Amino acid sequence: GENVEQHPSTLSVQEGDSAVIKCTYSDSASNYFPWYKQELGKRPQLIIDIRSNVGEKKDQRIAVTLNKTAKHFSLHITETQPEDSAVYFCAAREGNQAGTALIFGKGTTLSVSS
Amino acid sequence: GAGVSQSPRYKVAKRGQDVALRCDPISGHVSLFWYQQALGQGPEFLTYFQNEAQLDKSGLPSDRFFAERPEGSVSTLKIQRTQQEDSAVYLCASSARGLADNEQFFGPGTRLTVL
User: Fold this and answer.
1) Nearest Cβ partner of B106 from A31, A43, A97?
2) CA angle at B33 for the pair B27 and B35, rounded to the nearest 5°
3) Chain A residues 42-71 with a CB less than 8 Å from chain B
4) N or C: at which end does chain B have fewer Cβ atoms within 10 angstroms?
């Protein structure tokens, strides 16, 4: 089955700097890769996702890149702000069939200091 | 509209007790997933429903775990004879259609503590 590795596990940046989180996956059939942000004690919320037919997607300060050949994808946050501090999870949809589960990485705790 | 809701938000159980956790998905959402999130970890898949049909229960850790969605809307995750290792946050997520790449909307979770 699918396996997702995520690193780093913790990331500390100064406000205004960029942050990059990287994930690798194992199942070449996977074709959907969402990123979730989870604040302490709250539900995971989707911040951006990418499908395997594109290599990059951007939404304001957030971008995701996907390298299908190398089976890795990355989250890029520019101009970080203190409210970006949270745990970020990458995920890959196991296989490509309807109704298959998301397989999550172990998370990256991002701390943005002002 | 209302998002995914779960109840109770917190549950403390003595080892050996049975518990039932409820999930109310977004109205009209076909797909419903249950995940288990241990402290400091990412969510781990437990089971999946498409309407009332449980299509995948491969993630359920033991036969003490049982889930149902009898009318294709509300779902209940039941854990029998709880053990300390069952302590975790149980997350429910729903998505609009039976297609795999639809956004999954998560509920706030139920934090289960087994003493």
Assistant:
1) A43
2) 130
3) 42-46, 49, 51
4) N
Check whether A99 has a pLDDT greater than 70. no
A95 and A27 in contact (C-beta within 8 Å)?
A: yes
Q: What tokens does B32 get?
A: 């419903």
| Alpha helix (H) residue ranges in A1-114 | none
* Closest residue by Cα to residue B56 from A12, A69, A15, A98: A98
Provide the pLDDT confidence category of residue B42 given band limits of 50, 70 and 90: very high
